[in-house]
C-alpha cells in the first residue's frame, strides 16, 4: 500500500458547520400527501472500510469490531471489507476519503483518533477539511495512559521525574497524541526522549518488548492482542478522570501545558469516529447512524468491546462529535496553536 496519494489539491481554510435550521411545514396535508421514500437496503452490497493504521493496533482492532457488528443492524446485512491505509497518523486515510473515495454511500472510514485536528495543528500534508466529513458515530471517549516498561523499576510520577536515565517514548507522527503528551511532560522537567515514526501502537508495543523504547502514551485497546505486554508495563498517569486510581497527567504540568493537553486530548474526548466521505448520500448516512446507535448498545458488541479495551455503553452521535470538534477548533487560540506547532515540529 503506497504511503502517499497525489490528490493534486491545495489546503483550504477550515469550513464552518452550517447552523441548525427549524423547518416548519406550511401545510400538513401537503406533507402527508408526499410519497414515502423506500427504505435503504444493503442486500448484496459490499461496504469498503478504510482504516488509517496497520493491522494489530487499537485503531485496527476497533475498526474490525465495528465491521463485524455494524452489518447486523443494516437492512440486507451487507459485507464489509477492510482496507488498511496506514500513514501519517491517519492523514493518508483522511486524504483518500476526502479527495478520492467514492461518494456512493458504500465507503466508510476509521482514519484514527487525532486526524481531524491535523489541518489546523500542523497543516502540511493534510488535504481535507474535517468539518465537511459525515460523522456516523463513536463508541465513546477513550481514556489514555502513560505505560512504562516494568524493567525500569519506576512505580510513580515522582520516581519518573527523578530518573537519571532518559525515558524513551515511542510515537507516530510528531503531532499526534502519543508523541505530544510525552513532549509536554518533557517541557515540564521529565527526562523524556520521543522517537517518532512508528506506523501504529502495535509497533510501539513490540518496540517496548524488544527494548527499543521504554514507554508509550496510549489506551488499553493497544494491548488487546498483547495482554502479556500489558502485564509487563506500569500505568503511571491517565489523561481523563475515571474510576482508575491514577493521577491525571494535568496534575504534573503548568497552566500553559494544560491548555496544550486539552487540545491534544480531543482524540480521547471523541474516541475513534466512524465517518463517511463528504457528499455521501444523506439516506445512507442516516441509515449508518441509526445502525451505529443500535450496535453501540448491543450486549454482544459490549462483551467484545470490553475484551478489546474499547469503550461501550455511552456512544457519541455524529452531530455530537462534530460539535466537540467545532468547540476544540474555537478554543485553539493563536498563541496555543503557535506553541503546539513549535512542539510538534520537534523530532525528539
Structural class category = alpha/beta
* Number of helical elements: 14
Shape: globular
* Overall number of structural domains: 2
Query: How is the quaternary structure best described?
Result: single chain
Low-confidence stretches: 1-37
CATH class of the largest domain: Alpha Beta
> Can you count the beta strands?
11
Task: Report what the structure shows.
- Helix 2 runs antiparallel to helix 12 and helix 6 packs antiparallel against helix 9.
- The N terminus is likely disordered.
- The protein has 14 helices and eleven strands.
- Helix 6 links the parallel strand 6 and strand 7.
- It starts with 27 loop residues before the first helix and ends with a helix.
- The longest helix has 15 residues.
- It folds into two domains: 174 residues, D-Maltodextrin-Binding Protein, domain 2 (3-Layer(aba) Sandwich); 122 residues, D-Maltodextrin-Binding Protein, domain 2.
- With 348 residues, it is of the alpha/beta class.
- It has a three-stranded parallel β-sheet, sandwiched between helices.
